[in-house]
Amino acid sequence: MDPTEPMTVEATMTLLIGDKKKAIRKKITPPSPNSPGPSLKKRGGTLPFSLIPQGLENLEGSWRGYESDLFSFETSKKKSSGLTLIELLLVISIMGLLVFLALPTLSKFGSNIRLKSASEQVSSLFRMARLLATTKNITTSVFIYTREAELPNHIFITGAGGQLEKVWVAPSLIEIPDVSGNIGLQTASFTSFGTTSAISLHLIQKGTLINGNPYDASGTYGSLSKAERVKCQTVTTDNNTGRARVYAYGRNAPWASTDL
Question: C-alpha angle 184/185/191, rounded to 5°?
């Protein structure tokens, strides 16, 4: 063999793409010691680019090192992250189960929020009527139409000469039930001194059952448990000061006049 003629050797290379290995054999001519050429630095040593088969120089993946000899290396494509169909269905099933279990609690919470919001609005309405009477030195009237009235669940405030000052309509899921002796309509007035006749306005969720039955003002509810009284919220006014207050339970007729 001519010593000046380049020596040709057969290199074995192991290519790892994904989970599959593929052995590649290629005859290559190593560079001379005087011209090693560009090299790829990697843990374990330096692999000349000239030893890499043509077409694999820019192979997408990450070099993982060498095997038993200088001419053997492996590379792998980075695995794509994600969920399998079974994992995705499992996650959706768990989320659906959690929502199903939490739905009654969330529904009750939403109902309580609506009831509390309506009570606060009515309380603000009474304060507005009192402020109007004291600042203008007039008598203001409050007309409360319950769910049995021609205009159900409405509240009107009028000023001097019956001039309409404010109209409030209860939200669709909130009702103003009738109280004994005032079927369909309740009235109250604020004087220029800010005093008023005592008002007890009840608010309930539409379709609320009290003691297992629809709200019925003719019944006697004073002795009912806390679980029954908390189905109702009451807005009251003090007849001496005219100040409004919200109770998060049924209070005054037909309920008991005691705190829970």
Answer: 170
Between CA 65 and CA 85 the distance in angstroms is: 34
| Terminal Cα-to-Cα distance of the chain (whole angstroms) | 110
Tell whether 33 and 147 lie within a shared domain.
no
CA angle 57, 60, 61 (to 5 degrees): 105
The total number of structural domains in the chain stands at 2
pTM of the model: 0.59
Pick from 256, 253, 204: which is nearest to 233 by CA? 204
Residues facing 132 on adjacent strands: none
Which structural domain, as residue segments, surrounds residue 28?
Answer: 9-76
**pLDDT tens by residue, 42-94:** 444 444 444 444 444 444 443 444 333 344 444 444 455 677 888 889 999 99
51 CB burial (10 A radius; 0-12, 13-18, 19+)? buried
CA dihedral sign, ordered 203, 205, 208, 210:
negative
Handedness of CA 117, 120, 125, 131 (dihedral sign): negative
141 in a structural domain:
yes
Residue 153, pLDDT above cutoff 80: yes
